[in-house]
Amino acid sequence: MTKKTKVNAAILIIGNEILSGRTQDTNTSTLATWLNSIGVKVNEVRVIPDIEKTIIDTLNFLRKENNYVFTTGGIGPTHDDITAQSVSKAFGLKYEIHKEAFKILEAYYQPGEFNEGRKKMVWMPENAELILNPTSGAPGFNVENVFCLPGVPSILKSMLGGLKNRIVGGEPILSFTINLRTVESEIANSLSKVQDQNKDVEIGSYPFFHAGKLGVSIVLRSENKNKIDNCNSQILKFIKEKKIEVVDR
Amino acid sequence: MTKKTKVNAAILIIGNEILSGRTQDTNTSTLATWLNSIGVKVNEVRVIPDIEKTIIDTLNFLRKENNYVFTTGGIGPTHDDITAQSVSKAFGLKYEIHKEAFKILEAYYQPGEFNEGRKKMVWMPENAELILNPTSGAPGFNVENVFCLPGVPSILKSMLGGLKNRIVGGEPILSFTINLRTVESEIANSLSKVQDQNKDVEIGSYPFFHAGKLGVSIVLRSENKNKIDNCNSQILKFIKEKKIEVVDR
After folding, report:
1. Closest residue in B to A45 (Cα–Cα)
2. Are residues A53 and A140 in the same domain?
3. B contacts of A29 (beta carbons < 8 Å)
4. Angle CA(B239)–CA(A23)–CA(B179) in degrees, nearest 5?
5. Which of B185, B193, B201 to mutate to test binding with chain A, by most A CBs within 10 Å of its CB?
């Protein structure tokens, strides 16, 4: 197997409603799970307000630091939807009517329904590539390594399928979980030794409380299955010695 | 009423499990809702991995840019819990046993249960102020304007009550929501005019789908009730003209 380069991404959540606590973001988890499955590691997530300068500055930083940037939110028809104009300015591109998007929405709406508000949604950075929207018509868009998606979680989800061929991932990041009937402090030292001997494997330890009982999930992550297996053996060895029970969660 | 200065904060979520998509963050929403209620506006949220240099650099940036920084995660007993040592380095403080925390945990656990793993949780930046934990014993801590809380949502929630007197907020940010049986594009232009005439009020527009029907929530946010009322009157005027129904959500 040839080793591919590591591929990473940042997620940029744009929206006052997340920062006010009014809306619970779920797009981070959706995007991160999907990106991991296609071999893209999420380095960082930022949530920022609907302020043009903040969007421009943050995007210009993140797009240079990461292979990909995925933005969510701010591409609807109202005055607080300023992602497309901000992305245009970030790239120094014209903000203009996207002819293909116009045709899509003209066909999508009934005659007379393609009103001024909806027409705002076809304004994009010049030469943007569209990201089709099978749920509600209005497309997202892509400029260089930046992919702009809507904030509504069900619509965002429905658009990921169409994106897959445009994202080139590295080796998929494999993940293996061991659930134990124990508490973190019981295994902390042993787990720390395993981590020291397996620097390439990311070992996470997460307490859980399920069906009235405490437990710990140990999560092993790596691009390399052998390394995960090796790490798993070492963990199984010490939990056997400590007589800790492995459980379904 | 004397006008207080605006007070802002950043939230720093520390944890690979959020970036991998394995865990859905809910602490942002909890903290943001609570901070807003005490007059602290959240400017920014960042999610970063369990990497010491990243934690140090991000924290040193955020703590200078904001009145307060709240971190979540990484203060447990395992090898991947590196928040306390990273915060110590960020402030150039010794990382040492906190005597008061030691006493608390010594009293909290049964004799013989205060093992090596648990003892790790009393290591903190020197002279840190404790944030008491009524749920599971192990305290969080506070250095200058940085407050370090655990990642487990139920534990984090239980610790906020004890923090309230240590955060000095500005005017509470008031929020008023109008739910309409319409779609965003129908009201986009009128709403945009209201925003232009009410620059001080943050007007958000959020589509919803509830009980089989589409609607839009308009959210008005400001420290000043009169400004919200004035803005609300202007919105009620145009929705009456447009014969749009106001609904409970």
Report:
1. B47
2. yes
3. 18, 21, 23-25
4. 20
5. B185
Instruction: Check CB contact of A117 with chain B, cutoff 8 Å.
Output: yes
Instruction: Please tell me the total count of domains within chain B.
Output: 2
Q: Which domain holds residue A43?
A: 7-166
Per-residue pLDDT reduced to its tens digit, A157-200: 999 999 988 999 998 889 999 999 999 999 999 999 999 999 99
Report the 3 state secondary structure along A138-188: EEEEEECCEEEECCCHHHHHHHHHHHHHHCCCCCCCEEEEEEEECCHHHHH
Report pTM.
0.94
State which of A100, A131, A166 marks the end of a domain. A166
Q: Are A219 and B79 in contact (CB under 8 A)?
A: no
Structure tokens at A81: 């939807």
Query: Looking at chain B, which residue has its C-alpha nearest residue A221?
Result: B20
Q: Encode pLDDT of A200-238 as tens digits.
A: 999 999 998 877 888 999 999 998 999 999 999 999 999
CA distance A74 to A16: 10
In whole angstroms, give the CA distance from residue B87 to residue B142. 10
B82 interfaces chain A, CB cutoff of 8 Å: no
Q: Touching check for A185 and chain B: CB below 8 Å?
A: yes
Same domain assignment for residues B11 and B97: yes
Indicate if the alpha-carbon torsion angle A141, A146, A152, A156 is positive or negative: positive
Residues A71, A192, single domain; the answer is: no
Contact B52, B89 (CB under 8 A): yes
Domain boundary among A121, A144, A166: A166
B80 → chain A, closest CA residue: A204
Which of B16, B20, B114 would best serve as a mutation to test chain A binding (most A beta carbons within 10 A)? Answer: B20
Q: Are residues B108 and B210 in the same domain?
A: no
Structural domain contains residue B1: no
Do A156 and A209 share a structural domain?
Answer: no
B2 in a domain, yes or no? Answer: no
Q: Decide if A92 touches B, using CB distance below 8 A.
A: no
Asked, for residue A189, whether it belongs to a domain, the answer is: yes
User: Residue B53 domain-assigned?
Assistant: yes
Q: What is the DSSP letter of B165?
A: G
Q: Touching check for A233 and chain B: CB below 8 Å?
A: no
Whether B210 and B160 map to the same domain: the answer is no
A-contacting residues in B 122-151 (Cβ below 8 Å): none
Question: Two tokens at A82?
Answer: 């300023």
